[in-house]
Design a protein that fits this description.
The chain contains seven helices and ten strands. It is α+β, with helices and mostly antiparallel strands. The longest helix has 14 residues. The radius of gyration is 24 Å and the shape is elongated. Bound molecules: 2-acetamido-2-deoxy-6-O-phosphono-alpha-D-glucopyranose.
């Protein structure tokens, strides 16, 4: 990984004037990242170099770095050092088209990958029974995936489908929608609810963000043309990666606008 050439520049390191030393160093490192003296993926200079150049103790450096790691600004890799955290791509997703994650990313030329967190047949929860319209004794197929692009985790998706639709959850390959298409049950309509959420600790660690950071909780209920519910998916998306975009048109209520 690249070592930044001009991280320190030619002039001596001038820490911000006020506050505890480690916080001043922390702010200085953050500013260096903002002004592009060091880029996402670059290695941070060693603790020793930082201590000498900033004229602070190594304990102070360690404290500043630890805080930045906790906040997801820096990442530490065992044995290889400390790096500026990779910057997730910002993705725009239209709210008027029923596309799959794989298709969304392919359209942008972005590589996708999924890590399986769970897949299997379960006794359904009351929510799943009602939403999927399951019969008495019918099982639910659950698939939970961490979705990544260029090795950056973007979202966790937990999908539930009737076991009659997905009898073998292990048979889903890279794309759930491709699988459903193969069996003629790809949804044609969906209702999606989006709300703000603070990402809880376990999900935060999977998404490589700090616990409590901003996320989007998304619930999608998808239907076949017949009106049958096919998919009930709850997802948590990183707030720093997604823009959901909706096109709005003047409707009936507004049609009188501009008239006297
Ligand atoms: C999208 C959907 C998700 C669906 C998945 C299928 C949102 C918020 N969620 O990510 O409900 O299950 O696509 O993608 O848009 P796949 O075909 O790549 O598995």
């Amino acid at each position: 990984m690249a070592q930044p050439e001009n991280f320190f520049g030619d002039s001596p390191v001038a820490l911000p004037a006020t506050g505890p030393l480690y916080l001043r160093l922390r702010r200085w490192i953050e500013d260096a990242i903002k002004r592009g003296a060091i880029n996402p993926g670059d290695a941070l200079p060693s603790e020793r170099d930082l201590a000498i150049r900033a004229d602070v103790s190594r304990v102070t450096v360690r404290k500043a770095v630890q805080q930045l790691v906790q906040d997801g600004v820096l990442v530490q890799r065992h044995g290889s050092g400390t790096f500026v955290a990779p910057q997730p791509p910002r993705v725009e997703q239209s709210l008027s088209q029923l596309t799959s994650f794989t298709e969304d990313m392919a359209r942008r030329g972005m590589a996708v990958r999924a890590e399986w967190l769970d897949r299997g047949l379960y006794v359904p929860s009351p929510d799943e029974t009602v939403i999927l319209g399951l019969g008495a004794g019918e099982q639910v197929a659950r698939i939970a995936r961490l979705r990544l692009s260029a090795d950056i985790p973007l979202a966790i998706e937990r999908a539930s489908l009737a076991a009659s639709v997905l009898p073998d959850p292990a048979a889903v390959g890279d794309s759930l929608y491709k699988y459903l298409e193969r069996f003629g049950v790809r949804p044609v309509r969906a209702i999606q609810r989006i709300r703000a959420a603070n990402i809880a600790e376990a999900d935060a660690s999977l998404l490589q963000v700090s616990p409590g950071s901003a996320g989007l909780h998304i619930e999608r209920i998808s239907y076949l043309a017949t009106g049958r519910v096919i998919e009930f998916t709850r997802s948590i998306y990183r707030g720093d990666t997604y823009d959901f975009v909706a096109e709005l048109r003047l409707g009936d209520i507004g049609s009188g606008a501009g008239k006297p």
